[in-house]
Amino acid sequence: MRHKAICQLLFIALALPITFLAIRADAKSQVTPRATPQLSPMDKEAVKRFEGRVKDYVKLRNGVKAKLPKLSKDATPQQIESYRENLEAAVRNTRTGAKRSDIFNHEGSDYIRRTLKVNFTGKDRVELRNIVFEGETATVKVRVNYPYPDQAELLEMPPTVLLNLPQLPPEVKYRFVGRNLLLVDSETNLILDYMTNALP
Amino acid sequence: MEHEAKGASYIMKRFIFSAVIVAGLFLSSSLSPSAYSQKTSNGNGNGAKAARAHSAVKLTLPLKKDSVKFAVMGDTGTGSSKQKEVADKMVQYYAAFPYEFVLMLGDNMYGGESAKDFETKFSEPYKQLLNKQVKFYAALGNHDQNLQKNYVNFNMNGKEYYRIKEGNVAFYALNSNYMDKKQIQWLESELAKDTSEWKVAFMHHPPYSSGGKHGSDDQLREVIEPIFVKHGVNVVLTGHDHFYERIKPQKGIYYFVSGAAGKLRSGDIKDGSPLTAKGYDRDLSFMLIEVDGKQMHFQAISRTGETIDSGVIVHQRAKP
After folding, report:
1. Residue contact A128–B146, C-beta within 8 A
2. Of A29, B27, B69, B205, which residue is most buried, by most CB within 10 angstroms?
3. Residue B320 lies in a domain
4. How far apart are CA B197 and CA A105, in angstroms?
5. Residue A147's beta-bridge partner residues?
6. Burial class of residue B274, CB neighbours in 10 A (0-12, 13-18, 19+)
7. What is the mean pLDDT of residues B25-50?
8. Does the complex come out with an ipTM higher than 0.90?
């Protein structure tokens, strides 16, 4: 009887800390999936219009690109450099006068801000915030129609966030710089537009 | 809060679940040698030349005829003398272990990508391997521009993510820096129809890592791990953290961090990390891998030529 009681006590003494550690480890390793905010008819319209403006940009840049020498899939570094410079210059010239909010605009920004807020708020999102705020992007001057400096890091777009934002065509990508959300050209890294205070 | 509201039966279930996990972790770390054994091998020489070279380096790989032989390097593109030293060591090992290709795990070029940078950070350090017709297959990292996908020597065929097949192994190069819906759908559909014996994914960011600076990329893992598990990916090779780490198998998948072929973050592996099967953060490193039937042999080597880890992974679905 006494032996049984000691065994039970020993079991509890061992099991409790192990369970505590296991629950902690388990909780740390799980990231709670976040849903996008419910899309109201107004949101749907705003997203549609945002996507339309992105498509307009893609049409314009692809039109410009078609007039330039094509870049081979087996290009030399010199060909890559020259292609990039030419495409960047041509697109910049075509978009002279482009300014902030031309693509994001007010309604589109509002929906994206709400989506980001849902995805970046909460204790389990500390790591996500760290990814963005600890990036080596302090030297990036965020200016529309100027290139993202190629010496600066291109921060990973957290997939869980990316999946909740309006989808972009391959020619355009989202990027974070501090609390700003940028739209950049995939090939030239030209900054097409940006939202200030996109992150909560 | 939510857990408390569910009451005692929930806590009991949680207790049992956690106890099973703890027991599983204990067993996997202590009873796994049948599936994952440390091994050194004398190899079956592949000719006199290789045998001579073999004696100059310490090879633990079996060097079998018709096996798939490759090297792995991550976070290379600094253009530094240390990167060159690792490259030279890779050349030395090539003489003993003539690998056909090299997987690049991203951050192929730090701080600028002019034509000159391609030279100083890639084609010069690896000139000897390029001259020997060794192919390089690159994945993109957070310091890489997109147009690297068009660079002839990175063999990306103009794509940010792609699949190649070598022998019985399918390799998936992923762009972990921008894992969007399109890429995920592509990966799912490619893996679903892939009948290759081995499926290896390589990308920059590590779903599992004990790095103090970066560590496990939970967001990436949340999205990509279920796909790997569902479609039987065997091994995942990653970089980003500047050290070597072999992770204890996670949900049946073997993960490696090999992000120190050009940059080192000395002492960055967290002490006592439950993820680490083997870690090395004292010097730069690269890996050599040989897939022979149902076995994948690996050897991790430091800049100075020290073997820092070696072993063999038995295919997860191989009969005992």
Report:
1. no
2. B205
3. no
4. 50
5. A190
6. exposed
7. 42
8. no
Those of residues 129-148 in A touching chain B at CB distance below 8 A are 131, 135
pLDDT tens, B146-182?
A: 999 999 999 999 999 999 999 999 999 999 999 999 9
For B238-250, the pLDDT digits (tens) are 999 999 999 999 9
Which amino acid, A19? Answer: T
Residue with tokens 């945002």: A50
Cβ–Cβ contact B176 with A under 8 A: yes
Which residues on chain A are in Cβ contact (under 8 Å) with B223? 159-160, 163
Q: Supply the CATH number for residue B236's domain.
A: 3.60.21.10
Range of the domain at B274: 2-314
Q: Which residue of B has its CA nearest to A149?
A: B112
**B78 is a domain residue:** yes
Which 3 state secondary structure label does DSSP give A128? helix
Domain assignment present for B319: no
Residue B249 lies in a domain: yes
A23/B14 touch (CB, cutoff 8 Å), yes or no:
yes
- Percent of chain B at pLDDT > 70 equals 82
Amino acid at A34: R
Q: Using a CB-CB distance cutoff of 8 angstroms, which residues of chain A are in contact with residue B150?
A: 71-75, 79-80, 83
How many structural domains is chain B composed of? Answer: 1
Cα dist. B67→A69, A185, B290 in Å? 42, 42, 6
Tell whether B26 is within 8 A of chain A (Cβ): no
